[in-house]
Automatic annotation (TrEMBL):
InterPro entries: DUF2336, UCP035865. It comes from the Bacteria. It comes from Brevundimonas intermedia. This is DUF2336 domain-containing protein.
Amino acid sequence: MNDQVVIEPAVIPGSRLPQLIALAGEESSEKRRLLLRELTDHFFGVSDHNANETDLYGSVLAKLSDEMELAVRAELAARFAEAPNAPHSLIRRFADDELEVAEQVLRASSVLTDEDLIHVVRRRGQGHLRAVSERATVSEAVSDIIVERGDDDTLDALLRNDGARLSRAASETAVERAKANPALHAATVERQSLPADLLNEMYFVVEARLRHQILEQNARMDPDLLEAALAAGRTRVATDDGALPADYAENLAYVDELKAAGQLTPQVLIRFLRSNGRTPFLIALSKLADIDFHTARGIVERKDLDALSVVCKAADMDRAIYLTYAVAVLGSEDNPMGKAAAYGRMYGELTRDAALRTLRFWRMRRTAQAA
């Protein structure tokens, strides 16, 4: 009988634990597997373990599971993943195992500390990082590393997790990455805790549906929160937006003269457009809307009529004025007249309050440049 270990199927009383641990040196793979499962049943069959008992279970189970095949380790990890009293040493070992073993533990175990998670996300692959990104809560310290090391699929999972906290620096990095990758647009814009100034940076690159969400959020924003968001955004606005056109200084002086004389009106901008005066039009538009020249130029160069509508609505321009600008900006090759009705409806649906709130974020660049 020396080559056999008798395993009782019934619930094992506490006095059996020493014998079970003594059998951990059994060399038979099958017997070790049965012992592993019996020890696991024994652990879950007792509702309360003291710290020493838990540590002992952890060390013995870890020793046994290390020599088991992947499927057995994965089965054991799944069983312990959501146990609040699981042995820390065992859970930590599972978390750093192959993905099939680690995934459920990384996603669900409350036993893992930030130190454990940081150890994993610093050295493991994207599957491990995604599992951590989907935890009920993710600290800023862990998220910082995931943003740094994660691929776009991992970043998408992290951004979609409202339980994941992102530092300001990590949020800025995420937004810069999202600007260049349409696959990240929805996760970024729809993230509830994204700072409002960073949310508005996404406006110029996302599709119409997401732009509408940004405008709606701006309209709902508490004035105090808006001011806080603007203050945060001013600290990071870049001023290196490219060289000014060669005729900028000359036309700036002319537009300033018109403004000083009270003659800078929306109708004057139409005259600039019709005479192919792109630079004076952009300068005048930036003056009327109180935005910087580079923002105005970007809107026109991209033929971004959504953004143009925000500018014109904030400046309280008539729908007819906006449509005139829109037709001129589009140019003949874009069938501007055929699109006029749709853009007219869009302009009518946009509230001035939402436009003004949105424009305040765009004005941050001008404030930063002036400073």
